Amino acid sequence: MTKTYRVALLTGTLLAGPALAETTLTIESWRNDDLTIWQDTLIPAFEAAHPDIKVVFAPTAPAEYNAALNSKLAAGSAGDLITCRPFDASLELFNQGHLADLTDLGAMANFSPVAKSAWQTDDGSATFCVPMASVIHGFIYNADAFAELGIEVPKTRDAFFAALDKIKEDGTYIPMAMGTNDQWEAATMGYQNIGPNYWKGEEGRLALIKGEQKLTDPQWVEPYAELARWKDYLGDGFEAQTYPDSQNLFTLGRAAIYPAGSWEISVFNTQAGFKMGAFAPPVAAEGDTCYISDHTDIAMGMNAKSPNAEAAKVFLEWVGSPEFAALYANALPGFFSLNSTPVAMEDPLAQEFVSWRETCQPTIRSTYQILSRGTPNLENETWNASANVIRGTETPEDAAKRLQEGLASWYEPQK
Amino acid sequence: MAARKPVRWHIAVFLAPAVAVYTAIMIVPLFGTLLQSLFNTDGQGGRMFVGLRNFATLFGDALWSKQFWNALGNNAWFFLIHMLVQNPIGIALAAILSTPRLRMAAFYRTAIFIPTILSFVIVGFVWKLILSPIWGIAPGMLDMVGLKSLFAPWLGKEEYALTALALVSVWQFVGIPMMLIYAALLSIPDEVIEAAEMDGITGMSQFWKIKLPLILPSIGIISVLTFVGNFNAFDLIYVAQGALAGPDFSTDILGTFLYRTFFGFQLQLGDPYMGSAIAGAMFAIILVGVCIYLFGIQTRLRRYQF
After folding, report:
1. How confident is the model at residue A333 (pLDDT cuts 50, 70, 90)?
2. Domains plus CATH for chain B?
3. Which residues of B are less than 8 Å from A251 in CB distance?
4. What is the three-class DSSP state of A295?
5. Which of A233, A238, A254 is nearest to A180 (CA)?
6. Whose CA is closest to A82, among A98, A67, A104?
7. Residue A242: its chain B contacts at CB < 8 A?
8. Which residues 160-219 on chain B approach chain A with CB closer than 8 angstroms?
9. A179 touches chain B (CB under 8 A)
């Protein structure tokens, strides 16, 4: 025993050498696109202020993140800091004791209750991740193409479809860049993008959770009916078009309108050689209240079993600070800070997106809170239904009926 | 009285490493999974024994059974395409390659075998690009021969997607039956062929009447390998269509269904207990299939000793 201890001590001394007091923190994340931003901007800024702590950003591919993280946490090999998906995925990790309770963290005072809602227990008594950013849905358009064809930025649904008709008639551009191969764009950039205008944002979302509205109600079916109309404006072979295909079609200037999430901004800025603009999901009639999806998307929590809890807390305090908010929002235009301190952003497209927060009512994606807890999973079913509706293989009414039956099969208030 | 045979320790010693490794990484996890399928969460973070209830859910609950039968049906179609396309083409290629007059046989053999050693990920992405309606070369090539009208976004259509992917898999793996049959054809002794020629059996009829009966055991083995490989398949579908196996679950096979259930997907949390139940069902299907072959077919095959 003593011998092992002595050997361990000796190796420790040899290996640690000059960096004796240094702690290394590892961040688990699905944002592999952000690797350079973390390495070049965020981590150096933190390490400059805290020379005793080193930070390593270790992302996994987005589609594998949840599965990989769960396995790593179960095996005890996960990093110290965990990037949190919103709502149930993280709540489950907290309930299993993998995420530490961060309610008492000083930086939590910098966030509104809405910002924290995605990373709290249902009763709001414990918060387990520091909110980082939200993403806003809308449409990004090719401003040069709009100018060339003499199209005004549409404010109403009629104007929107008139614009699509005009682009289609002209034939130079594919009216709208979206495919159904990967399914999630149809739901996330389709249904959840235009839907809040129909179900009146939070009002409809909360009524659905309380069981006062059903997915078969008109305000939940009509967005599908609108999606079904999109079919005619998508490119040839959109059934096999993938998400990167759509991105490339738009940035290469072959498509005029892109149903977007604000996270596209930084990618599009580097790739598109034309002027871009953005508009919020069009409303039914001029002057109607508009609703946007301002979805709490990303946060950071702490591995409850981390041996470096003290250092991790120091880092999380920094993540919750206005300094981090300013750095992050400007390094990643399109990820909007949830910090209560307003952040000045330089990117015009990001400014356009965030300006809707003032004129429109924000909400989050309808399927994320509570409703995707059971089997069948409402979010996954919504992907499938949205893609089916756009491809025209299922009518909006049938899709809504199927989703409602699935939800009612396990969710008490909807029975 | 004859001396008792000495205990042959060296057999055990030589077998030990392989048995130990195989037990540790195959047999123990297999039984661990089968055991886990008999448990489920107790709602308090622990697990409890539920007997066969997971299987009752899988086959009895409409939500689960619909997905299971859909995946099994798709898997059967996937297997059928391999049996009807991959294996006959493999046999035909082997027969052509084994004709002595064929020049550059080594080149063809290598070229046809190369896709087999490629990663699923590469094959999936390459074919996705080839068939892409936007950047793919498939529409352009069809256009060159005036058949553009035949092009469809195959991977995005419910009625074609699974068949298209099965054919991609056939393209990738046709080298394996080809190689095995080729080896079997080469092992047919020249005397048998010469005797056939003496009797005036040459060309095609020589293949059908002499060679084919002699390679039937190899064809049997290939069928079993295809069966096991297809019912364990996952990678190609996952790479090309994602874990939701679109469009509308038309390419969902048992492997992707298992992955989705076991590890979860997007907002769907992983359920290791139901996942294990699906894995158990897959194991049973493969076991039954292999047993039917071993006891029903292989024992009846005529074997020839040279």
Report:
1. confident
2. 50-295 (1.10.3720.10)
3. none
4. strand
5. A238
6. A98
7. 128, 132
8. none
9. yes
The residues in A 351-370 lying below 8 A from B, measured between CB atoms, are 367-368
Helices then strands, counting H and E runs in chain A, come out as: 20, 10
> What Å distances lie between residue B180 and A326, B175, B207, B286, B292, CA to CA?
63, 9, 16, 22, 22
Residue B98: phi and psi, rounded to 5, are: -85, -5
Domains of chain A: 2-133+295-348 (3.40.190.10), 136-294+363-414 (3.40.190.10)
pTM of the model: 0.84
Question: Angle CA(B142)–CA(B143)–CA(B146) in degrees, nearest 5?
Answer: 90
Mutate to test the interface with A, among B42, B121, B266 (most CBs of A within 10 A): B266
Q: Which residue of B has its CA nearest to A30?
A: B266
- Amino acid at site A392: G
Give me the residue label for tokens 């069009």: A282
pLDDT band at A2 (very low <50, low <70, confident <90, very high): low
Return the structure tokens found at B286: 């493969």
Euclidean distance between CA atoms A169 and A166, whole angstroms: 5
Taking Cα atoms as reference points, which of B64, B66, B70 lies closest to residue B273? B64
Q: In Å, how far from its chain's centre is CA A154?
A: 25
Cβ under 8 Å to B: A residues 183-212: 183-184
> What six digits make up the tokens of A171?
């034939």
What's the start-to-end Cα distance of chain B, in Å?
38
Q: Which of A68, A69, A40, A82 is nearest to A298 (CA)?
A: A82
Give φ, ψ of B132 to 5 degrees.
-60, 130
Percent of chain A predicted with pLDDT > 70? 95
A97 phi, psi to nearest 5 deg? 85, 15
> Is A246:A267 a contact under the CB 8 Å cutoff?
no
Element (H, E) at A172: none
Distances (CA, A) of A363 to A204, A290, A296: 10, 11, 9
Q: Which of A30, A60, A66, A297 to mutate: most B Cβ within 10 Å?
A: A66
B115 and B172 Cβ atoms separated by less than 8 Å: yes
Q: Does A75 touch chain B (CB under 8 A)?
A: no
Q: What is the pLDDT of residues B120-165, one digit of tens each?
A: 899 999 999 999 988 888 888 888 898 888 888 899 999 999 999 9
Token output for B45: 């973070």
